[in-house]
Design brief:
Elements: E1 5-9, E2 12-17, H1 28-34, E3 38-43, H2 59-72, E4 78-83, H3 85-96, E5 101-107, H4 119-127, H5 136-143, H6 150-157, E6 160-162, E7 168-170, H7 174-179, H8 181-185, E8 199-204, H9 215-221, E9 225-230, H10 237-240, H11 242-253
Parallel strand pairs: 2-3, 2-4, 4-5, 5-8, 8-9
Antiparallel strand pairs: 1-3, 6-7
Length: about 260
């Protein structure tokens, strides 16, 4: 699984992972800002963006994908950051290969199993008739029958593109993501001992993904975890409050004098 990635900046390598239905492009502004201080490696996870498609998707597999990428680039130790599903991949990788992770940032997700919360999204995406679709506006109108939030629809429809036959297609592997959704909602697998390195969990103040009851499983897996809440932000604090987010990440990842 040779993952697609973009690299920019210089300094200590910082690997960034996106969430479900996303791509490395979701981190564009943060990647540019952080590239002034770090060697940024923004990655498309399997079945997303321009990375290869596969029938199987779970956190052990995505951890192995990331290991293959880092080995191919001769990156022995990195800073690692992931949002939502990408945060679970980052946690899994840190548990699997602690010697490869210097520090870890997890954005608005916990190392626990989540109940399904994307049923309407998946139904709406599947309702879009790609073979006969004439425009993005038409796709938005169909998706709007399932998803009220305009910003969410715009995010999801970034996956639409025209293939070589000039027909609309999904960059993501929608069928695999729908069929393996339970594996995506699952908790990262504990590999043995906890990850003993520094970890920062960043929560959007208005988001319900990180809850008080998640503190124990976090401490069990990441005993050096710290927490920051970005007030006024939802599940996408890196997008909704970019300047605050950049400052928190830069301060955490930059060694103290």
């Amino acid at each position: 699984m040779k993952l697609h990635y973009q690299r920019l900046g210089q300094g200590t390598p910082l690997v960034i992972l996106h969430g479900l239905f996303g791509s490395l492009e979701n981190w564009g502004l943060q990647a540019k800002a952080l590239s002034e201080h770090f060697d940024i490696l923004a990655v498309d996870l399997r079945n997303h963006g321009r990375s290869p498609h596969a029938e199987q998707i779970d956190y052990s597999l995505m951890s192995a994908d990331l290991l293959e990428l880092l080995d191919s680039l001769s990156l022995d130790k990195v800073l690692l950051m992931g949002h939502s599903m990408g945060g679970k991949v980052a946690m899994q990788f840190a548990l699997d290969h602690p010697e490869r992770v210097e520090k870890l940032v997890v954005v608005d997700i916990a190392p626990v199993a989540y109940a399904p919360r994307h049923d309407e999204v998946i139904a709406g995406l599947k309702a879009i008739p790609l073979e006969s679709l004439k425009s993005r506006r038409e796709a938005d109108e169909i998706l709007g029958q399932y998803v009220d939030e305009e910003a969410t629809r715009a995010f999801l429809l970034k996956n639409l593109y025209r293939n070589e036959e000039k027909q609309f297609a999904w960059r993501m592997n929608l069928n695999a993501l729908a069929e393996r959704y339970a594996d995506i909602g699952a908790a990262p697998a504990r590999s043995g001992v906890p990850y003993a390195g520094p970890v920062l969990f960043i929560k959007g103040g208005n988001s319900d993904y990180l809850q008080a009851e998640h503190q124990q499983p976090i401490q069990d897996n990441f005993p050096k975890a710290g927490f920051k809440i970005i007030a006024g932000a939802g599940h996408l604090p890196h997008v909704e409050k970019p300047a605050i987010f950049t400052r928190l990440v830069q301060q955490f990842f930059t060694p103290a004098d």
